[in-house]
Amino acid sequence: xxxxxxxxxxxxxxxxxxxxxxxxxxxxxxxxxxxxxxxxxxxxxxxxxxxxxxxxxxxxxxxxxxxxxxxxxxxxxxxxxxxxxxxxxxxxxxxxxxxxxxxxxxxxxxxxxxxxxxxxxxxxxxxxxxxxxxxxxxxxxxxxxxxxxxxxxxxxxxxxxxxxxxxxxxxxxxxxxxxxxxxxxxxxxxxxxxxxxxxxxx
Length: 202
Known about the structure:
The chain is of the alpha/beta class. The chain has six helices and four strands; from the N terminus they run αβαβαααββα. It has helices spanning about 15-35, 70-95, 115-130, 135, 140-145, 180-190; strands at about 40-45, 100-105, 155-160, 165-170. Helix 1 (about 15-35) runs parallel beside helix 2 (about 70-95) and helix 2 (about 70-95) crosses helix 6.
């Protein structure tokens, strides 16, 4: 999560979208051939409850026209879910023995907002009232090592999925929209120049 100052990757992508989604997309697709050789392997992406009200700025991905750091972060977390759900569909269609799942930490007191002094203070208070960093990791641990459904989404299950023990969570309608997921997949292929032949088309 970058702060109020807009920054870009060396490739020219808006930093939050470039790191949180495009980097994960490229890294995952490059590893898929090796993962496909390993039955039981898993791919886990970390999203956030902030994805629920997020909108991807399809016509301004580089944030040249407008930049607001929290909406951009939320959009990257929506992208994480769209990617995992589309990846799950393609993995199953290709018959590959790889499970794709997503998770989220709820509200956890980490240094995620360290680029903003007031954000860092807020995160410290969140750690006292909601989840510690260790508790925020429960969803990731379940998605990576526990019994999961392919394409599942895991994280805190109490207090509107903000804290508590990990379990299956409910993604937003946009996150489950297959048209948005395919659009993001095709865009990611075009922007990164990386594709997986066996998963390119379903």
